[in-house]
Amino acid sequence: MEALQKLIEQLDRISEDVNVDAVFGKPQTFEGHTLIPVAEVSYGYGMGLGSGLGCECSCHDEDGAEAEACCEDEACACGEEHEEASAGGGGAGAKARPIAYIEIGPEGVHVQPIIDDQKIALGGILLGAWAVGWVGLVLKTLFTRRA
Amino acid sequence: MELPEQRIRVVAASPIEVGDRRLLPSVLVSSLRTSCTHGGPAGGGAAIRLRPISVVLEGPESAEWIEIPNTTANMLSQMMTAAATITLVSLLIIGVSRLLRQASG
């Protein structure tokens, strides 16, 4: 558990010193205009570790070295302790999504937004379905009253 | 189990030099962390989000503040507001309709 604690502290330190420069890309010059890409960056990680008594006893028969299989909550036939087992796992992920670019030219500096059409379309469809559902419910209520 | 710790801060990124202009970007850093290491199973995790806020443009004679809008997020937020408004208005109409029906017997 101490090792995990140290690992979490290390990762916490990394998250404290996040590289905010990752948000702004390297300037690219093209035909007298300089473009700087701007992105929204998000990342995360998670991990877990557990330990407990294993499902096998360390009993050995007289001839071989095979372990006796039994359940964790059952006592070992030979009176020995269950073997302790531990396991852990973790994962991490990162995502960068462009949201705009800064255009620097002779006529000035402009920020051009980058719109995620797929998200907007999906949001529009969901909003439409939501509106149709509620309007239908209202009409049903009103017609029921008149009848 | 410790409560998740959330931090939000604004951090200045490294200046970007373009010709005689200098850009000073600023970034909103929001982080959420949680960990549990007190006996038994242990675990932890964190999520960090970096969002650009603005750029201060320093020229030879003047400085200009330029906001960086997140247009997609703003449009989705407007859609959420519209959905909430539709829900509230519909509930209001349904409620008034039922009250009128009860009042008329």
How would you explain this protein's 3D organization?
- The complex is a heterodimer of chains A (147) and B (105).
- By secondary structure, chain A is α+β, with helices and mostly antiparallel strands.
- Chain A contains 2 helices and 5 strands.
- In chain A, strands 1, 2, 3, 4 and 5 form a 5-stranded antiparallel beta sheet that branches.
- In chain A, a hairpin with a 2-residue loop joins strand 4 and strand 5.
- Chain B has 105 residues and is α+β, with helices and mostly antiparallel strands.
- Helices cover 31% and strands 47% of the residues of chain B.
- Chain B is built from 1 helix and 5 strands; from the N terminus they run E-E-E-E-E-H.
- The model of chain B has no long low-confidence stretch (mean pLDDT 87).
- Chains A and B meet through helix 1, strand 2, strand 4, strand 5 and helix 2 of A and strand 3, strand 4, strand 5 and helix 1 of B.
Number of helical segments with 4 or more residues of chain A: 2
Would you report the number of β strands of chain B?
5
Rough shape of chain B? flat
Work out the largest interface and the residue count of each chain: A-B, 55 and 55 residues
Quote the average pLDDT of chain B: 87
Radius of gyration of chain A using CA atoms only: 31 Å
Residues in helix, % of chain A: 25-40%
**String of helices and strands of chain A:** HEEEEEH
Strand fraction band of chain A?
35-45%
Could you list the spans of chain A in which at least 5 consecutive residues all have pLDDT below 50?
none
Instruction: Spell out the helices and strands of chain B N to C.
Output: EEEEEH
Q: What would you call the structural class of chain B? A: alpha+beta
> How many strand segments of chain A?
5
Q: Tell me the radius of gyration of chain B.
A: 25 Å
Poorly predicted runs of chain B are none
Q: Characterize the main sheet of chain A.
A: 5 strands, antiparallel
Distance between the termini of chain A: 69 Å
Structural class of chain A: alpha+beta
Molecular shape of chain A: flat
What is the beta-strand fraction of chain B? over 45%
